[in-house]
Amino acid sequence: MIFTTPRLFALFCLWTSFFAVGALPAHSHERRTGSGVGTSHTSGTSKAPSTDTKSGDEKVPVQLWVNHEGQSDEHWVLVIDKVYGFHAIAPEEKPAKPGQLEFKSGLDPQAKLKPQQLAYRPEKADKLMNLDCDATFKDQADMTKVFGELVTKIDMSKPADEVGGNCMDYVKMALEFLQKGDYITSVPKIFTTYYNKNYNAVRKEVYLGGSSDESTEESE
């Protein structure tokens, strides 16, 4: 068969186009049609979708720990996310172990309690009172900032034997602080009910040495 110049040229074009199509990367069709949505291609290799996206707000439970309930050293601690405890104690009252309180004998009624953070032990989760309350933080950094403020920004300037100066008052003020910052929607009703029911009796037993105090202000 004799190939004229035009025919040879046509065959040459057909031959080169065949090899050009065969050399295309397999994923080029995905790129054109969109069937590869969610993947990224570089030099013929594929990359899985990124999983580095932020999970959003940090939502954690807010609970109450009543240590030594009904005893002369009863103590209230606010616990956030089951392990972060916040309470007010006399400066010389140091936890011997994380989550364990050691009270000195004969608390000075004129002592001004100091807010502190403690590590609550996860194995004692069954001791926590459910307040049906969650706190929401923007992220871990925001949570850490608020935790610091629960120690530094709660006013505990009154003596322990005065209303507003004991561990129960601290927990109440800490919850009000969280509410004011929109970290919780409101002070939990469960806490308010428990606080109102037990405040005077606990204050009398723990901070007034069991003596009567006719001038005791009615808790709100």
TrEMBL record:
Residues covered by region (Disordered): 29-57
Organism (species): Lentinula lateritia
Tree of life domain: Eukaryota
Keywords annotated in UniProt: Signal
First and last residue of the signal peptide: 1-23
Protein name: Uncharacterized protein
